[in-house]
Specification:
By secondary structure, the chain is α/β, with parallel strands linked by helices. The chain is 37% helix and 13% strand.
Length: 171
């Protein structure tokens, strides 16, 4: 039996939208089995207002939400990560810090809602779509039988989660 929750780090370039949403979703869905964090390679310094608004409307506590540099998690005394997921293509291509403990990594890329253009309603819909996609992926992740999968099988499943296309039935 594991003596601590799994630590999961979600990475994006700006740490203002997708990674913040993922952190909130996993901290709720993980039910104490997971502790989620988020960070960025070039953090914007503030969480996008639409992300905060959506999280509040979905009854997430937003007190945790701050845009932070991934270097916070690569120093002595930082939580040791079990999983690190990149959520944007630019962060996936950047050289990452060396994470102590050799966490499992995967790329779960999805469009940046902060870059959405259009009407206010269309921009808010982009955030809702990102939330839905992240919620679906995180639901699959939290349901994995982590204790029974070897590293290769687990890596394959993590990659499938990030690359899976969602059908209308899943939405």
């Amino acid at each position: 039996m594991r003596d601590r929750p799994f630590n999961v780090l979600f990475l994006c370039t700006g740490n203002s939208a997708r990674s913040i949403l993922a952190e909130a979703i996993l901290n709720r869905a993980g039910a104490g089995r997971f502790v989620a964090y988020s960070a960025g390679s070039r953090p914007k310094g503030a969480v996008h207002p639409h992300a905060l608004d959506l999280l509040a409307r979905m009854n997430h506590d937003t007190a945790f939400a701050r845009s932070k540099d991934w270097a916070e998690f690569a120093v002595p005394g930082a939580p040791e990560m079990d999983f690190v997921f990149t959520l944007c293509d630019s962060a996936a291509q950047e050289p990452c810090p060396v994470w102590p403990g050799q966490p499992m990594t995967a790329h779960w890329g999805l469009p940046d809602p902060a870059e959405a253009i259009g009407t206010e309603a269309e921009r808010r819909l982009a955030f809702a779509d990102a939330y839905r996609m992240l919620n679906n992926r995180i639901s699959v992740f939290t349901a994995l039988p982590l204790a029974t999968l070897d590293r290769l099988a687990l890596q394959r499943r993590l990659n499938e989660i990030g690359g899976a296309t969602e059908t209308p039935e899943q939405a």
